[in-house]
Amino acid sequence: MLLRPIIAVLALVGLWLAMRWLAKAPPARVKQALIAAALALLVAGGIALVATGRMAGLIAVVAGLAPWVTRVMRLHGVWRALRRFSRGPPPPPGETPPPPPPSSGEMTREQAHEVLGLLPGATADQIREAHRRLMQANHPDTGGSTWIAARLNQARDLLLGT
Question: Which end of the chain offers a freer environment for a tag, N or C, measured as fewer CB atoms within 10 Å?
Fold first, then answer.
C-alpha cells in the first residue's frame, strides 16, 4: 500500500527535475534527450509486449499498416520537396540580414554604398556587379525578402543616377 504513494512522489520529483533541465538545456541537447527517451519507451514497450505475449497482435497491426505508412511517407517527401523548391535555396549561415531599421524612405549615398557592400568611389561596373550578386542571393522569387530587394534596387539607382 505504501508503494504507490512513493512511486507517485518519485514520478513528480522526476518530472520537476526534467522540466528544470528542459528550461536550461540548449535545444540540441533537448532534441537528443527526447529522441533517446522515445527510443527507450519503444524498447520498454516492446519488452512489455513480449513478456505479456501480445507481440503477435502488434506485428499483425504493423504489417497491415505498412503499405499506408509508406504511401504517407512518400507523399510527405514530395510535399517537403515542393515546399523547399517554392522557398528557394536557404541563405548561407551567418549572412542573415538584420531586420529593417525604421527609415524615412530616402537613402543617402553612404547608406547605398553600405547596402551594396561597396566603398565610396566604386565604379559603375562594381556597382552593377554588387547589385547583381546580392539580388541573386536575396531575390523574392528565390525566397528572399522584398524589402531587401527594394533597398538593393534603390541603392543601385541612387549610385548610378538612374
Answer: N
Q: What is the CATH number of domain 109-160?
A: 1.10.287.110
Residue type, position 62, single letter? V
Give the amino acid at 11: A
* Domain range list for the chain: 9-87, 109-160
pLDDT tens, residue order, the chain (162 aa): 788 999 999 999 999 998 898 888 888 888 898 899 999 998 898 888 888 988 888 788 888 888 988 888 888 888 888 777 776 666 666 665 555 555 556 888 988 999 999 998 889 999 999 999 999 888 888 888 888 888 999 999 999 987
Q: Are 134 and 117 in contact (CB under 8 A)?
A: yes
